[in-house]
Write the structure tokens for this entry.
Amino acid sequence: MIKIENLYKSFNDLEVLKGLTLNVEVGETVTVIGRSGCGKSVLLKHIIGLLTPDMGDIWVDGKNVKMLSKSELYKLRLNIGVVFQGSALLDFLSVWENVALGLTENQKITVDKAKEVARQKLSLVELEGVENKRISELSGGMKKRVAIARALAVDPLYILYDEPTTALDPITARTINELILSLKRKLKITGIVVTHDMESAFYVADRIAMLHDGKIVFDGTPTEVQTTDNKIVQNFVKGGGQY
Amino acid sequence: MNKGFIESFFGYIGRVCIFLGAIIVKLYYLPRSFRLILEQIVHMGIASMPIVIFTSFFAGMVTAYQAAFQAGEYMPDAYLGMAVAKAFMIELAPLLTGLIVAGRVSSSLAAEIGTMRVTEQIDALESLAIDPIRYLAMPRFIAGIIVLPLLTGLSLFVAFFGGGICSIFIFDVKPIVYIEGLRMQYYPHELWGGLLKAFCFGFVISLMGTYYGFMTEGGAEGVGKAATKAVVSASILLLFFDLFIAWIVF
Ligand SMILES: Nc1ncnc2c1ncn2[C@@H]1O[C@H](COP(=O)(O)OP(=O)(O)OP(=O)(O)O)[C@@H](O)[C@H]1O
Ligand SMILES: [Mg+2]
């Protein structure tokens, strides 16, 4: 399970996170919603130790992320798949090399075997016959799906999605939402989905947490989100309220 | 000189040294990275070859021509070959190659890695438990150190050829005399000194390219800045090393 306690982070003079607390139980999918620039990506980067908190702790499976040595941190990361906001695929590698990168660089594995795993993960995200393409030949939605396949390649226990459906057409977005849901159900993967796409949030989440002004101001089930009288949440869900 | 300058100067040196240290630690993975290094050598070498050949050929011809002009009518014919050989071995081949490759390779290294930085590809490597210094910086650094002496050798060879063309066709020097001239008064340390320079230039070029790539921040504009800084600082350091090695070796 992932436990985030009282997390503070600022960049220069900009305070981004101001005492954020959030728990994610094993097997559950939590959606973090919040306005653009409120620190959602910053939060995800703390969980895998890409950023260090100014204050506060993050516990993953009982390990305090900021206390880990580099090799322990790398070991932990093998259990966490991350889908970056901009997909972040390496553009000098082909599609399958991207998907299998975590395997080929960290394990002794033959090229054939790695390619086979890549193909299988790509078929999970409904991409077939693209494994030898260059990244530059893919559309944005295909890149997102390759990024998900890459995050799945090492069979992680956790997966962090940073806006997996933004900038996708409604049909592709729906495929991705269904995929997130089925990964949770079939593979029992624990997930955090950062998004400001409310439709997606309602569809995939067991719980929705709202990040506002550096803190989680609301945390509840999708039904509770729709019935809450918290003004910030209401405004966000209804798209800013009245003009 | 004010305090701010001195602080930032030593801060800069410190950061570069820490970065270099991080690369050196990763040399432990050298055998495993053989394929990555080879790819980079091919990439850098092939990309720089045409311009190195072109420049060296013309510089060789010009050197022979100027040497003939300086020496006037009374020079022995063999002198031309010797002038070309000496000028290129100790100075022109490494320096020309170094400056050209600094422009081509250190900027493209900085831009390539910088783009990876701003598009979160380096974060993605980290998230896959792959050390970006080991995977990206170290192979490029080693490749640069290997490629520069190779390109310098090529430059030397092409310049001898260019100088020969000029001597033979413009000044009617017999080919055999020109070649004898190349070998006249040859001291091995001139060749090794030149290659040592090339080795250091490769070090500087790939270090600056990868360093500024990794330090990139702030989108596409940052990538452009990183590329420029890499070229400028690589060129300056290169000239500094040129003098330093000349002083030590000769
Ligand atoms: N490395 C960094 N250095 C300085 N400031 C940063 C850095 N990373 C993020 N920030 C700042 O932190 C704030 C939160 O950024 P973050 O990327 O987490 O937003 P977000 O909630 O993911 O927004 P979006 O929905 O647009 O992706 C922004 O104001 C951003 O400028
Ligand atoms: Mg974001």
Summary: Residues A 40-41, 85, 162 surround magnesium ion (ligand 2) (CB under 6 Å).
